[in-house]
Design goal:
The protein has about 100 residues and is mainly alpha-helical. It contains 3 helices and no strands. The longest helix is centred in the N-terminal third of the chain and has 35 residues. The protein is elongated and about 60 Å long.
């Protein structure tokens, strides 16, 4: 399988970049969660959820990718992000109650 080695190396490098970008996205989510906790804003804003998912699907379509796959992928990403924000908001509430 030596013939596949250079492709695997490229895929591994891309996977690392994707994960680093996700870490950056989560850093922003954590900032937003803290802001929402301070301002009393709900973690999940349905209109924004739809906007983010559909924007991703639109970008995917422009790049010749499967829009439905990207919608499903982003649905999971958004769900995880909202859960992270919920955790931040709840931790802030508990801290304030102490």
């Amino acid at each position: 399988m030596e013939i596949l080695k250079p492709y695997r190396t490229r895929i591994n490098a891309l996977d690392e970049e994707i994960i680093k970008l996700l870490r950056q996205r989560y850093d922003v989510i954590e900032e937003v969660g803290a802001l929402k906790a301070r301002e009393g804003i709900d973690a999940t804003l349905p209109d924004r959820v739809d906007e983010v998912r559909e924007r991703a699907a639109s970008i995917a379509a422009e790049l010749g990718m499967d829009e439905d796959f990207i919608r499903r992928l982003y649905a999971q990403l958004i769900e995880h992000s909202c859960n992270l924000e919920d955790d931040i908001i709840e931790a802030s509430r508990q801290k304030q109650a102490s």
